[in-house]
Amino acid sequence: MISIYHYMILSAILFAIGTFGVLTRKNMIVIFMCIELMLNSVNLTFIALSRHLGNMDGQIFVFFVMTVAAAEAAVGLALIIAFFRNKESVEVDDFNLLKW
Amino acid sequence: MFESMLFTSVALVAILSAFFVMKCRNPVNSALCLITNFLCLSVFYVMLEAPFMAAIQIMVYAGAIMVLIVFVIMLLNIGSVAKSRYTHGVAGAAVVAFLLFIAAAKFIAGGEVANKVGNVTAQVVQDYGHTELIGTAMFTEFLLPFEIASILLLVAIVGAVILSKRKV
Lengths: 100, 168
Known about the structure:
The complex is a heterodimer of chains A (about 100) and B (about 170).
Chain A: H1 4-24, H2 28-53, H3 57-87
Helix pairs in contact in A: 1-2, 2-3
Chain B: H1 2-23, H2 27-47, H3 51-76, H4 87-110, H5 122-128, H6 130-141, H7 143-163
Helix pairs in contact in B: 1-2, 2-3
């Protein structure tokens, strides 16, 4: 029988993989995708706990997380394109405009 | 038995695809693996009796956000990256991620999830339908956050348009 713990361990694994990707990759778009991965693992926890506790609030929260993720995707990708236009690169090592 | 087998196989695919999102050298391959991961998560949502969330997951994430990301990858024409030389950075990140997972696993194993059963059971979801339950909660109890989310989306639209203008 699949319990709540299986889902929570699974989402912990997915979150750790996402963290690893954010910390190691250099490509801005891949970092962005790893952040989406982390958001999704948290969504899985929300829905599993919502099902376990018999309460709808967790799923409403997932809805808002998706809204924020969509807004983040729109603004973040626009920022990446604006940066690429100036520097011809999406590597995070080139993001040094504020470096003194 | 069947549920357990389904969970194990889909979880395996989810973890492998998440790993390849992080591992693939070409961003397009990463994007395809991420779509696979989203599909696996929507299978989990169906198993957790949240079919509306599964549909939203496919439509919003796999449909809208990933199309946007793939579109940007194609637009910028990014090729595969060379193998990086900073192995100590990778090792440090691996340690951080592993410690994070250990901390989360300890937290999950040590804590007892409250066995409080609310009013939304499988029978209620069967009778009323998942969409109706979500809609009722969203338009009564969570009306103000819903309106704030719409303002957030409006701000995101305006911000994206202004950022992608050629002359700012």
